[in-house]
Amino acid sequence: MKTMNLMNTTITLLIVGALSTLAGCQTASPNVASSDVASGEVKYGDAKAVENVSNQFGSTDLQSIAETMTRSLLQSGVIVNGNRPRLTVAEVKNKTSEYIDTGSISKSIRSQLLKSGAVRFVANIDEMQTQTDELIRQNQSGLYDKKSTKKLGKMKGADLRLEGEITSIVKKHSGLTDVYYKFSLAMVNIESGELEWADEKEIRKQSRR
Amino acid sequence: MISAHCKSILGGVLLAAVLALPVAAPLHADTIESKLDRLGKLKYLKVSDLKAVSSGGLLKIQATFENTDNTTQRLYYRFKWLDKDGFNAWDDEAWKVTELIGYQKQAIQTVAPTPKATDFRIEMQSPEQGLFGGRAIDSKP
Q: Does B42 score more than 60 pLDDT?
């Protein structure tokens, strides 16, 4: 009888233990928050996780803007017809009150568009100096085999130019901070000056102190 | 993420549950269910409509998320793009977060990043709901 009671108690304890362990097995969310890292701890995280560390412009905002703009561009009539137009990236202006590396946003858009195989990109204004320096070195230094030097005057001009801006509206009231971002991107036909495509991505973030 | 320890416990519980069922539910190739990868329990969130068409050589998707509860629910989601052989056709997308107020239906549209993508899955997760459900963000819409 005593043995039976002991067995019953042991089984009950095992079940309770298993259930309480399971209760602790909540599925973690794919997000990054300051509470996720203990003091003094260093850990690797998911680069694609939703970043909730602060209400400032963050990795999730950059990734979602780049993705939305790329997918919208891929559906535009200019790109869909399969002629792989040549694009160049002009300035993306930062009109917000915080520091945002807009070049990083445009580079993400460029990488994703190139990877899709739908377009080609030519050197933009920032990259032009490096490009011309290389051509001049090959053609004027006398160091290179003439057969292998790349000829001057063969660079391709862009058909379309991407340009944009990011703006923000920040409101604060009773400890609540509301940040609204709007990223606008447009594609201009360089020859005709026509606006071929334009889209916007809006983001709202709120935090409370 | 669920730890290996939790997985083994879960595995045991799930196996027991499967053995207790008289017949396993069949999987159909082109149902909404077959396109969803749920990470954990989604008690109040579901995909009520799913459309896929080929547009300009790219797969275009419209998914309608629905909150079946009267409280606001938050949803994390992203698309996985697969090629004709079932391999990943694109890198992992960034997770997106959206909020649905009580009983709201929200249609989201996206397009495949490459013509190689011929199939897709929607990964879904709710931060408010773990394995046993959970609280809502706010009781008011």
A: yes
Asked whether residue A4 is assigned to any structural domain, the reply reads: no
Reported ipTM: the value is: 0.77
Residue A31 lies in a domain: no
| pLDDT score of B29 | 59
Among A18, A22, A71, the residue with its CB nearest the CB of B113 is A71
Contact A29 B60 (CB under 8 A): no
CA neighbours closer than 13 Å in the CB half-sphere of residue B12: 9
Bridging pattern class, strands A160-173 and A86-94: parallel
Q: What is the structure's pLDDT at A77? A: 84
Query: Looking up tokens 């259930």, which residue turns up?
Result: A19
Q: Is the pTM of this model over 0.80?
A: no
Sketch out chain B's domains with CATH numbers. Answer: 24-125 (2.60.40.3230)
Q: Which domain holds residue A146?
A: 126-156
Say if residue A113 is in the same domain as residue A162.
Answer: yes
Regarding whether A147 and A116 lie in a shared domain, the answer is no
Q: Do B125 and A27 touch (CB under 8 A)?
A: yes
The confidence band for A110, taking pLDDT boundaries of 50, 70 and 90, is very high
Confidence at A9, pLDDT banded by 50, 70, 90: low
- Does the beta-carbon distance from B2 to A27 stay under 8 Å? yes
Residues of A whose CB is below 8 A from B78: 48
Q: Which residue of B has its CA nearest to A26?
A: B130
The 8-class DSSP code of residue A110 comes to: H
**For residue A102, with 0-12 CB atoms within 10 Å meaning exposed, 13-18 middle and 19 or more buried, which class applies?**
buried
